[in-house]
Every structure is written in C-alpha cells, then in structure tokens.
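Q: I have 268 residues here and want to know how they pack in 3D. Can you give me a structure?
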Amino acid sequence: MDVGIVRVAEDCDFEKLKSLLENHSGWKLDYHKAQTKVWTKSSTDTNFKMIKIKTIFSDVDPQIMYDVLHDPDYRKVWDDHMIESRDIGCLNPNNDIGYYALSCPPPLRNRDFVLQRSWLDVGNEQYILNHSVYHNKFPPRKNFVRAKSHLTGFLVRVCPDGGCELGYVSQTDPQGKLPSWLVNRVTQIFAPKMVKRLHKASLGYKSWKLSHNPDWKPWHFPEQMTAPRISVSECVQSEEEKKSKQYSSGIDESHIKEMKVMDGMDDS
C-alpha cells in the first residue's frame, strides 16, 4: 500500500511481503552470522536502502513470537527505543492506525510515525505489515522528525524441527539527510541487535504475560478491541504536515560523525 492510503489490507499486500522475503534478486547480503542474515537493496522511493532480515529461533514458539510483536504493553518492556505508542483507531479487526515515536542514538534527532498496521494469521504463517498514513489529530510534533514507512513487515513461520523462522523487511525513509556510514551500521549493528532483543523478549514473554492481563490478546480476539472506529475523512494530510515535510527535507545530519553516535549507544 502506498504512503497515505488508508484501506483494509488485501491478500496481495501480504503476498508482496512474502515475495520480498523469498526473492533475493537485487539484494546484497551484508551480514551473516549463525542463523541470522541481513540484506540491503537500493530503492527508487528513498535514498535509504531497504533492509531484509531472516533468522531462526529454534527455542521460540511461533505463537509466542507473534504475540510479542503484537502486545503493546510488553513492547514497553523490551523496546528500548520506544518513546511513545498510542492507538488512534481501527478500520476492522485486522487493521488499525497508531502513533509511534522512537529514540535515535544522539546526536541524531528522534523520529516518529503515524502507521496503519495490518495483520493476518493463516496458521503456519503469520503476517504483520505497516505503512505510513496521515491523521489530522496527530500532526508532526516539536523536536521529532516525521519519518515514513513505505513498507515494514514481519513474517513468522513454523519451523519443521521446532521453533520459528522470522522474516523482516523495512523500506523506511527517516527523512532529512543522514550520514552515509549509517547504512553500514544499520546492517552490521542495529539489525543484529534487534534480532537479539526480540529473541530475549520472546523467551521472557510467557512468564511476563501470566501476571499482566494474560487473557487480553485483541489481535486474536477481536471482541477485546476497544479502539474507536477510524473515519477515513480524518486520515488526511494537514497543512501543518505539509509544512513539516518541507522542514524535514531541510534537516541535514550528514555531518554527524560516527564516533558521536556510537558513544550515544548502549551495548545491550
């Protein structure tokens, strides 16, 4: 789905994610260690490369992984980069819109998104997609750069020998001008760290969920959803957003040195 388009996801949208994960033509393998591979690919939509990750967690049940990716309360526990996450509303039981703000390693500016998220569970495969949209009640915020997700998605699969395979694709434009060295850091450091963080989170989810509203899983039980219905008429680009686009394109962080960013990172 294109940026700004709000509609219920169709089978072809999930098939696109699957195709991106399975077809390696035009992709460059930049990282391979143990069960984790990271590829990059140039994109015509943004100067920032697409990234693809595939890994296997032999000790994680696929259902647990799917729940970890969905559960907003648990995300506050394991996602160290999340500043804020808010439900805006839903289109139907498998499509919602939300706000997400994340911290970037200083001195890079923090980014935020308004995202439509769509999901599909077909048993042995479970999909989660998102792309950037607009909402007139969530205009750009001061001290954040409004970034764009052209397509970001997870595919969780059952492994024949137990455990799960996790696939991830992201075509994201962080907006502004970023340092050229950052692409290598994304593939060599940030992506593998995300895999490790997800693995650790998955191993701890079952015990955490037992004492944190264990029966609440609206991604499985739509009757538990409390978010209001979205009106498509609200999902428009505001004048403030248009002005912010011009502002974001003028942000130049290309001069920031690698050492400064690495000093601002934790080693967890």
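Q: Anything worth noting?
A: The longest strand covers residues 82-92. The helical segments are 11-22, 62-70, 72-78, 182-210, 239-249, 258-263.
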